[in-house]
């Protein structure tokens, strides 16, 4: 599958999961949550292909890392107020932006395609790390399901390592 197909499948599946969580009363319906679910869906359905040097996922991750750093710095300087989730989110955004940039570079350079990054274990680690930003297990589930949709589309739906 190509990036457009992964995006289509990942976003649709993530939205369905978010709607289910909404109807079960686990995910509040508000504009920030809708935006966050969409961003998570886009990033996590492409994440397994971050090991391509010139792939769409790599460019999206690099852009996301740079954007997080810029928004974090603007928040730290008081130019932009992003207190929706956590006080001091600016420093967390800069930290995660740097992690994303370093990890993207290392994955594209040193990890072969469809190795560890294409595994359920990595998906759980990546999705679970969102808890430190959002403090929401619901968003972690949306992220993991989006990630897993990529593995399913590639036919690797049960790859643990």
List keywords for this structure.
69% helix; globular; mainly alpha; 161 residues; 7 helices
What's the tally of helices?
7
Shape: globular
Strand pairing plus helix content: what structural class?
Answer: mainly alpha
Our estimate of the beta-strand percent is: under 5%
- Report, as a whole number of angstroms, the end-to-end distance: 21 Å
State the helical fraction.
Answer: 55-70%
Can you characterise this structure?
By secondary structure, the protein is mostly helical. It is built from 7 helices and no strands. It has one domain. Helix 1 runs antiparallel to helix 7 and helix 5 packs antiparallel against helix 7. The longest helix is centred in the middle third of the chain and has 22 residues. The two termini are 21 Å apart.
């Amino acid at each position: 599958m190509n990036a457009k197909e992964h995006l289509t499948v990942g976003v649709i599946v993530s939205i369905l999961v978010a709607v289910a969580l909404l109807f079960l009363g686990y995910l509040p319906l508000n504009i920030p949550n809708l935006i966050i679910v969409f961003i998570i869906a886009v990033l996590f359905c492409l994440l397994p292909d971050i090991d391509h040097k010139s792939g769409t996922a790599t460019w999206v991750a690099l852009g996301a890392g740079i954007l997080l750093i810029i928004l974090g710095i603007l928040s730290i300087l008081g130019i932009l107020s992003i207190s929706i989730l956590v006080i001091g989110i600016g420093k967390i955004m800069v930290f995660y932006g740097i992690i994303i940039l370093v990890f993207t570079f290392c994955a594209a350079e040193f990890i072969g395609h469809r190795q560890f990054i294409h595994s359920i274990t990595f998906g759980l680690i990546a999705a679970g790390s969102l808890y430190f930003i959002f403090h929401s297990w619901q968003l972690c589930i949306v992220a993991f399901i989006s990630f897993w949709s990529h593995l399913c589309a590639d036919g690797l739906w049960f790859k643990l390592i």
